[in-house]
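QA checklist item 7 of 12: single-chain prediction sanity check.
[x] sequence parsed
[x] length recorded as 277
[x] structure emitted
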Amino acid sequence: MSSSSLLRGDLLLQKDASELRLVQVTDTHLTGTANGELLGMNTARSARAVIDAAKNSGAIDCFLVTGDIAANEQPTAYGQLEEMLGSDTPSLWLPGNHDDIRSNSGPFEPHLRRRLRAPCWDVVMLETQVQGEVGGALNAFEIGALAEAIDDAIAEDKYLLVATHHPLRSMASAWLDEQSVRNADEALNMLGPHADRTLMISGHVHQESDAVVSGIRMLTTPSTCVQFAPQSEDFALDDVAPGYRSLRLYADGSVHTEVVRVSDENNRPLIGSSGYH
């Protein structure tokens, strides 16, 4: 994690306050090429299919991309994602442990905003990437950004969505829990007074989950490519399709969310794989 903040500024959405529709896309593992693969699966083909399905599902106010955009720090992966998402809908991005967007962030600054501000909900994007490590942490910039977002949400009587790459909770999966956010408890303690008005979404774990931890509803979302088997001691793939998460956030704080999976029988991973780097 750098000593400076990658994420800056706000995206302001002035719209009907009754509903905010967001789509989470995560862990695309793009290579910047049309034929790049992860564990036998063509990641560009699967990401495009998932993103196109989301676009065809109805109006979207913003895409939230929660990290591991690149498969292995490929600089051309970010332009590839930008092309797939298109210019009709804004998108906010987080880096993951496989990313190096910081080295060439200039062209993508519109996507590297700290917050989305809407009439009844705010979204705060928090960077958990630690340079050279698979696991995560929230540095002083991120903790400060979270504190400011909480204070603003309380002062403005808003609900808060917190987006991270690494989830801030155990997944009951030994190998994934070794990659946890080191100071997750610090962030969760800060959110305590606003817990019942907070929703958290994360990527990294390549699986769907929905749990309440420390009073906060926490969601994880499938990758647009390969999926990890839940509650596994060691690395294991799950034979389920990739997908995206749709989020409808309402003015009264209620949330309607669903994971939409997109099948392609001609683009499947090698299920017996024992891991990847």
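[x] summary fact logged: The two ends are 19 Å apart (CA to CA).
[ ] second reviewer sign-off
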